[in-house]
Design a protein that fits this description.
This protein has helices spanning 5-13, 35-45, 70-75, 86-92, 96-108, 121-125, 129-137, 165-176, 193-200, 217-228; strands spanning 27-28, 50-53, 80-83, 112-117, 148-151, 185-188, 207-209. The radius of gyration is 17 Å and the shape is globular. The longest helix is centred in the middle third of the chain and has 13 residues, at 96-108. Helix 1 runs parallel beside helix 2 and helix 9 (193-200) runs parallel beside helix 10 (217-228). The chain is an alpha/beta fold and 230 residues long. It contains 10 helices and 7 strands.
Length: 230
């Protein structure tokens, strides 16, 4: 919700005509109110860029005021959707059952879900990291359809506190054993230009889920450049 309409326009105007490096898969998740504007700007720039929604409903249609369905997201031209972001888990009271329903709705309309998992500081400090991840990963257990996984330690989001590279590598290595071969695993949590290259160099890290830094055009450009040069 942090981005303004002008911010979306500034994001696209900050890139030159060549857009993103050809070896990258770059995606953005604007506010639902700005999805169509982002899609129009993408078409004007002819960028290789996926545009997705920050959440979707568990339902396809009906009297669910304020919700946005996967069908609606897909029919305007989006190709991806976030499912299980920590802020939606906390504020929306999401359960494994509701998250599974959202994934199924996304698959039904050919959206690629970006499924998020991660622990709070209290859970990590009490030694429950693996227990928490195991519980969250039950949602995608045995899933053979194409999706992306993102590890976002809740205690690192927007705090400036980042796990060590060894800690990131340990979790990504563990998550790799829980999904089908070929599933990309992103890292998210206080990603910034200063640490992007180091995180991307960690074995098992397929890419980055960038939060606050994506709202600053220059910072986001630097992070993308780090990914292009990995």
């Amino acid at each position: 919700m942090a981005q303004s309409l002008q911010g979306v326009r500034d994001f696209f105007s900050s890139w030159n005509e060549t857009g993103f490096a050809s070896n990258l898969e770059v995606g953005i998740f604007p506010s639902a109110l700005h999805l169509e504007q982002a899609l129009q700007l993408k078409a004007q720039k002819n960028f290789k860029l996926s545009i997705g929604a920050q959440d979707c409903s568990t339902e396809n249609a009906g009297a669910f005021t304020g919700e946005i369905s996967a069908k609606q997201i897909a029919e305007i031209g989006c190709t991806t959707v976030l499912v299980g972001h920590s802020e939606r888990r906390q504020r929306g009271g999401e359960t494994n059952q509701s998250l599974r329903q959202k994934l199924d709705r996304a698959f039904e309309f050919s959206l690629t879900p970006l499924f998020c998992v991660g622990e709070t500081a209290e859970q990590r400090d009490s030694g429950k990291l693996i227990e928490v991840l195991d519980a969250q990963m039950k949602v995608v257990e045995g899933e053979k359809r194409s999706f992306i996984l993102a590890y976002e330690p809740v205690w690192a989001i927007g705090t400036g506190r980042v796990p060590t590279m060894a800690e990131i590598g340990e979790v990504h290595g563990y998550l790799k054993t829980k999904v089908q071969s070929g599933v990309g695993i992103l890292y998210g949590g206080s990603v910034k230009p200063e640490n992007a290259a180091s995180i991307l160099s960690v074995e098992g890290v397929s890419g980055l889920l960038v939060g606050g830094a994506s709202l600053k055009a220059l910072d986001f450009k630097k992070i993308v450049e780090s990914a292009a040069n990995r």
